[in-house]
Please model this.
Amino acid sequence: MKSHLDETDISLYEGASDQQIKELENSAGVKLPDDVKQFYQFSNGFLSEEDQFRIVPLDELIFRNRRRDILYFGEYLCYCDTWALIIDPENNNYQIIYPDERGIVLTNSFSEFLSRFFIGGVFEQNGLYDWSDEIRAKETK
Model:
C-alpha cells in the first residue's frame, strides 16, 4: 500500500499504538481480529479525497460504538454510508457488513475489503457499492 501511495489520493494516518488498540478493545469488549489490528498498527485509518471515504481512526471507533459487537470502521461522505465489523467475542471471528436495511455480509477478510476499495473505490466497477450489488443479486437467485 505504501509503495503505491503517491499514485492515489489517499492520506494515511499515523499507525495506532498498542495502547490505543487495547483501549478500543477494552471499551468495545472485544479483541480486534489479527488482520484488522495489523492494519491499524500500520495506519490508524486513512482518507481518500476522491470518494470522500475513510477508514475511521480508533478513537472514533470508540466514540461511534453503539453496540458492543459492531464497530463502524468505514464511512463515506461524513457517515452518509458506513461499513462495519461484527465481531464474535467468543471466538474472535468477524464479518464485514454493509449495514443497509438487511445488513449484507461482504466478507470475513479485512484485506479483501481494502482490495475492493483500492480497485473500484466506492462507486466504480468492482468497488464497494458494486460488491454489495453482486451479493444482493446472488441472494435473490
In short: The helical segments are 18-28, 34-42, 58-64, 110-120, 128-140. The mean pLDDT is 85. The longest helix spans residues 128-140.
